[in-house]
């Protein structure tokens, strides 16, 4: 009898352990869908590892599985891959301005010129279930700051969720960044990160929540922000993707802003036909003046001297600018 009682107690204990394990597993599954899990945890649970587009000291651009939205069981599919003109992306980056708690441009024009071709390449490479995350150490305008963000194209708008923004740095920016640590943490759908910064700009709205709006999550109307831009000419730095240089020149035959944003999955054969070459007189009329070329050459030289581009990129881009004369 005593042996039977001990066996019953052991059986009840084993059942309790199984029941608790089951409840914990269910709770963890629910929380995984309700909250955006860190990338490291997602990797353990089976999500594919981030796809690195570019990684340099103080900089990374990666494709990563979508984070979860607290208002959705599963986030809506992004409109990826998408083709956004690098010139438009540069204008968007240069137009963004932090207003709280600091007041400053989020990216210098030099940073916009370096980042835009890389981000354009990342958006054209991402699939519907991937976001682009990036961090960049900006050495322009006499400052040294890191800004990190998540980016994706959804509902015909470009979304940015900013994480660590305008974080002053020193030696850490000279090493390969860790995307899970400050100041290289991209923004999240599920929540703001600590010490977030409000970002604004022309043609920019903020993601609404049940209580207010996310001042770290902006939604960009690309045609509006591009048309409103009145800043300096931005010299784009070519980016080598799989052995091919991403085009960084806007020609007279470039389509209107609205037509430059094209989800690649929705393209038809007709949409991919080449546009007719512009008339020679139109090309000559569109070429920048001497002052504009001299300014672009000076900006390109500064990028080279600060080590932001290679000697090969500098030579190639310099030749392209001189060919416009």
Q: If you had to describe this structure to a student in words, what would you say it looks like?
A:
With 325 residues, the protein is an alpha+beta fold. It has a domain at 51-266. Helices cover 35% and strands 22% of the residues. Strands 1, 2, 6, 7, 8, 9, 11 and 12 form an 8-stranded antiparallel β-sheet that branches. The chain has a 3-stranded antiparallel β-sheet with strand order 5-4-10, with no helix packed on it. Helix 3 packs across helix 4 and helix 8 runs antiparallel to helix 9 (311-323). The chain is elongated, with a radius of gyration of 24 Å. The termini are far apart. 35% of the residues are buried. The model is unreliable at 29-47, 247-255 and 265-288 (pLDDT under 50).
Largest sheet: 8 strands, antiparallel
Summarize the amount of helix as a percent range: 25-40%
Low-confidence stretches: 29-47, 247-255, 265-288
Overall, the morphology is elongated
Tell me the Rg in angstroms. Answer: 24 Å
H and E string:
HHEEEHEEHEEEEEEEHEEHEHHH
Number of strands: 15
Mean pLDDT: 75
The SS-based structural class is alpha+beta
Query: How big a fraction of the residues is strand?
Result: 15-25%
Describe the structure in brief.
This protein has 325 residues and is an alpha+beta fold. The chain has helices spanning 2-34, 39-44, 86-95, 109-125, 222-228, 257-260, 280-286, 290-305, 311-323, and strands at residues 51-56, 59-65, 82-83, 97-100, 104-105, 130-138, 145-154, 157-162, 167-168, 198-200, 204-208, 213-220, 240-241, 244-245, 262-263.
């Amino acid at each position: 009898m005593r042996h039977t009682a001990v066996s019953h107690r052991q059986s009840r204990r084993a059942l309790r352990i199984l029941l608790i394990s089951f409840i914990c597993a269910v709770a963890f599954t629910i929380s995984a869908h309700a909250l955006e899990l860190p990338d490291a945890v997602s990797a353990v649970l089976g999500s594919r590892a981030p796809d690195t587009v570019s990684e340099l000291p103080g900089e990374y651009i990666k494709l990563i599985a979508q984070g979860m939205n607290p208002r959705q069981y599963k986030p809506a599919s992004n409109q990826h891959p998408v083709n956004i003109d690098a010139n438009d992306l540069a204008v968007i980056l240069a137009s963004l301005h932090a207003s709280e708690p600091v007041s400053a441009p989020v990216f210098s024009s030099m940073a916009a010129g370096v980042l835009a071709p890389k981000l354009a390449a990342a958006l054209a490479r991402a699939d519907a279930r991937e976001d682009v995350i990036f961090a960049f150490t900006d050495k322009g305008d006499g400052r040294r700051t890191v800004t990190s963000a998540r980016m994706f194209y959804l509902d015909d708008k470009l979304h940015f969720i900013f994480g660590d923004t305008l974080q002053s740095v020193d030696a850490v920016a000279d090493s390969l960044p860790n995307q899970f640590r400050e100041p290289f943490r991209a923004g999240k759908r599920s929540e703001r990160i600590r010490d977030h910064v409000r970002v604004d700009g022309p043609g920019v709205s903020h993601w609404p929540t049940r209580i207010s709006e996310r001042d770290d999550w902006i939604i960009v109307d690309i045609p509006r922000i591009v048309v409103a831009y009145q800043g300096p000419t931005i010299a784009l730095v070519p980016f080598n993707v799989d052995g091919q240089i991403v085009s960084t020149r806007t020609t007279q035959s470039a389509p209107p802003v609205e037509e430059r944003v094209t989800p690649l999955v929705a393209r038809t054969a007709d949409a991919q036909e080449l546009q007719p070459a512009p008339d020679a007189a139109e090309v000559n009329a569109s070429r920048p003046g001497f002052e504009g070329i001299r300014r672009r050459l000076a900006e390109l030289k500064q990028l080279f001297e600060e080590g932001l581009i290679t000697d090969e990129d500098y030579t190639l881009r310099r030749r392209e600018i001189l060919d416009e004369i």
